[in-house]
Amino acid sequence: MRLKPITKxxxxxxxxEQIKGLIVSRxxxxxxxxxxxxxxxxxxKISRASVREALRMLEIMGLVEVKPGKGTYVKxxxxxxxxxxxxxxxxxxxxxxxxFEARLVLEPAAAxxxxxxxxxxxxxxxxxxxxxxxxxxAEDDIVGLIxxxxxxxxxxxxxxxxxxxxxxxxxxxxxxxxxxxxxxRVEGRPKKTVAEHxxxxxxxxxxxxxKAKTSMxxxxxxxxxxxxxxxxx
Length: 233
Description:
Layout: H1 11-25, H2 37-44, H3 48-61, E1 64-67, E2 71-74, H4 85-90, H5 93-117, H6 120-139, H7 142-159, H8 163-175, H9 178-183, H10 189-205, H11 209-229
Antiparallel strand pairs: 1-2
């Protein structure tokens, strides 16, 4: 299959369809390497940013795995994001326990620092991320919701003004995103997330360190409890 230049307005979505077609048409086995970012840019005639966004979405779907410094590899012909949630949860127990345990250590403290140090630019970016989440909720776009949710939490890490915390949050949100993939598939969870994100953001705007910490902790614990209701042990 020869990839074709893309002229559509929603470039990343068009790129996703062509890359998925490449995987299926050539019957690429899990573990096989896809063309490099540069090759995809050249063949699809779109920006590197659009290619990276497409690969990010494919990774969240569970179709590919991006290995920093090595390239992008086929993970499966069908994405795990669309497997029945119960089945998915049963095979990701340890990963999810580790995910939320780490975030409960890091993110309440990060929210507290953000409340003390966030600039107006940080707050504007958080407001934009929350608006995007609402848009994706209205569109019932699960991949878009996951990306918007991840972005919101990453921005809080950046708003701490602490480069080490920012790097840790960036690592979690770029490479360890199974928690977001799980929770946002639980019925009713995306709407609850909007309210909880609003509460966290309001605490940051008010520069209320304690409220920001407790709001973030509650947000994470609520996500865990909703997962338990869906069958997570």
